[in-house]
Amino acid sequence: MSYIFGHRGAAGNYPENTMLSFIAAREAGADGIELDVQMTKDGELVVIHDETVDRTTNGTGFVNNFTYKELAKLDASYSYTQYQGKAFIPSLVEVLEWAAESGVLLNIELKNGVIDYLGIEEETIELIYKYKLENNVFISSFNHYSLVDCKQISNEIETAILYMEGLYKPWEYAASIGATGLHPHYIAARKEIITQAQSSGIAVRPFTVNEKQIMKQLIESGCTAFITDYPELAVSLREE
């Protein structure tokens, strides 16, 4: 059975990377949630995709120029006007507390490819252990140096490489840095890649899969999981 991860929650219908979106994805039947982590000026880990708040909130500026208290006041409803005043940037702590209660799986993406957030790996892993989620979480990143650091901090928590284009024998590369998962853009996740990777013990979870036909193909191919903005659609197709 292919697991379904809600991309930034249920980002197709809710403000991305908010508790509203995460809860909606879980209620739709998603097995897991994909979320993005950055760091504030005062060292708090927060859940937001972009390095700036401009696109997804009513604020302007870089995340790392705000304290967490300042960020928490911003409205994160952006284009979803029906959720104004109800959607905010959550802290990673808030999400982990919820995940510990709900049992949902988490794909935590470290957003440290543009800004090198000092200590983001250590702080993230420390919180994962604090909430006893080490068996329900895997860490992904486009910054593969960061994934190596994560494995040095904890060999127990799984890591997965994010990438956009074709890699030669990506399962071998993943294994070489201690990763147990591939998170390719779905175009780079050809059937033979999925088959060979999974037969080598490397999970494959393509992103961001929003087309019905591609969802069906991945489910039928036995792909480990996929990440989608529309978990409710993916769940209904899997149930069929």
From TrEMBL:
The keyword Hydrolase applies. The keyword Iron-sulfur does not apply. Residues 2-238 form the GP-PDE domain. It comes from the Bacteria. PROSITE patterns: GP_PDE. Its EC number is 3.1.4.46. It holds the Pfam family GDPD. It is an enzyme of class 3 (hydrolase). One of its GO terms (molecular function) is glycerophosphodiester phosphodiesterase activity. CDD domains: GDPD_TtGDE_like. Keywords: Hydrolase. This is Glycerophosphoryl diester phosphodiesterase.
